[in-house]
């Protein structure tokens, strides 16, 4: 194998390892809404105004989430998705 093939093989192995371990890391975790500090959310929000991590603009926005250990969300003062979505829809109706 030449150097270019070795690098390509290593990159492929790393990509496959990441793809396989990502779901394992998420096992035992749940999305917890309303606990993320500004810029510390894990991904897109309920409003659909962004789809990336680190884009929340206010602390503890009820539409933003972080992955936490399963069962710990509510003790941290957060909400699971069903409750967060319900609150989001109610707030949208108000105005």
Automatic annotation (TrEMBL):
Source organism per entry reads Alteromonas sediminis
Q: Which Pfam families match?
A: DUF2282
Q: Does the keyword Signal apply?
A: yes
Record protein name field: DUF2282 domain-containing protein
| Keywords from the UniProt entry | Signal
N-terminal signal peptide: 1-26
């Amino acid at each position: 194998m030449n150097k270019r093939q070795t690098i390509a093989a290593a990159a492929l192995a790393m990509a496959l390892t990441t793809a396989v371990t990502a779901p394992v890391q998420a096992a035992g975790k749940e999305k917890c809404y309303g606990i993320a500090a500004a810029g510390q959310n894990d991904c897109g929000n309920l409003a659909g105004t962004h789809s990336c991590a680190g884009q929340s603009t206010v602390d503890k926005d009820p539409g933003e989430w972080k992955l936490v250990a399963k069962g710990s969300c509510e003790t941290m003062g957060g909400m699971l998705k069903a409750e967060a979505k319900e609150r989001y829809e109610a707030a949208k109706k108000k105005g």
